Write the structure tokens for this entry.
Amino acid sequence: MNLRVLRTELLRSAAPWAGLVVLAGGLGFLYALNGPWWGTSVQWTDQWTPMALWTRVVLAYVWPLVGGVGALYALRDHRSRMPELLTSTPRPAWQRAAAPATAIALALTAGFVALLLWGGVQVALGTTTVTSLGWLPISAVALLALLAAALLGMGAARTLPSPLTPPLVVVLLLAVNITLMQNSDGRLPAANIAPHLLSQLSPVVAQPRQVLLTLTGAVHLGQALWLLGLLATGFALLTATRARARLTAVVPALGGAVLALLVLPGDPAGSYRVDTAAASPACEGPVCVSEIRHDRLAALAPTATEALRVLDKALGDDAPRRVREETAPRALMENRQLEADSVLFNFEDPQIGAAKGGQLLRRLVGEGIAPSCTASTAREFGSGETLVVQSVLASWALGEFRVIDADVYDADEYRASTRRTWERFMALSPAERRSRAAEVREAALGCEFTYPDELAGGSARRTGR
């Protein structure tokens, strides 16, 4: 391939627009819209794997657009009415197609690498402590998907040289993404409409919700085989000059699909796994967090250790002996798996993730006496009544009444309810208070909730929260 021709393609053709679509489209999605890619544990500039996964999420919109740009790019010969002249020259068709194909591939690579650098520099300069290269295959498949979409669009436009071809390519790829879309509401991401196996033929992944989850090697391999087949089909269509060649051009895509379906896992358990390096425990005494949160351990450990001391004084032999971050995958609204010997917490809980000093101590003590089976995260809202009970019992254990700060619907009622419950609870004798605290804890470990008006007496066993 003549480098001078390639230089001309890059400087004077529409190829660079493809790279601009990737960079501007990706950053526009991530910065113009407010979503879970900001302000959560899976923020796209915090950790390497979430960063790579979010660049796969934006393919829901960028992938179809790149296919449309490729189709528009390939229509230039038809618009200039040169196809007959070009096909009459002795130069092989693949050589004529190599320059525009290489130009758009270089532009896409530059745009996508710039998007990765934008996020990667922020991750590297941040607080991440896990530098595994496991995110690279996730991003490599994304780049391969962009190249395949561009060449497929170019091949489609060369086969059907019509002004309607670019928008049709965009609509077709967008429909594929919607049909094969996955969601992250379950314990592991799964398909919405299509069977899970087929859903993995889309390069788009479910929106990250759990920071420790990543894709398995089988998914990378299967998707790479499928996308390579699409890329080869696109290039074959781009170089085809006869109807028979156009028919045989679909063989690589069909072969890639067959190989991919043989390799791709058939269920979510085979597609997603917990990143063992990120989930490995980092401990300071009895206080443990996941390695990916190692930067928060130094600030957490003294307060958590003090919480264990308070709990030991309040509950005696039945008190938990560890404070540990939850790392097991969990579906939205699924009950937490509580442990009698541990105070479990999640940095997604706004009363823990953003709490400091006395408020964090109070929250950990409350969770140690009356653990809640219902999680409180950015997408799950815990009960205000749970916080009332935890506030009262934490105040009792700490010897000072204070409400756990929380973003609840009616803050005045929350504080008034906590004050009333506290007064009724403190009207009990010291022995009765200790007995009630033990009963509430035993019931809570079995996911049986104690309402505030039951705390000072009555059954502590009512199922529901």
In short: The beta strands are 182-183, 190-191, 213-215, 272-274, 281-284, 287-290, 322-325, 342-345, 448-449, 462-463.
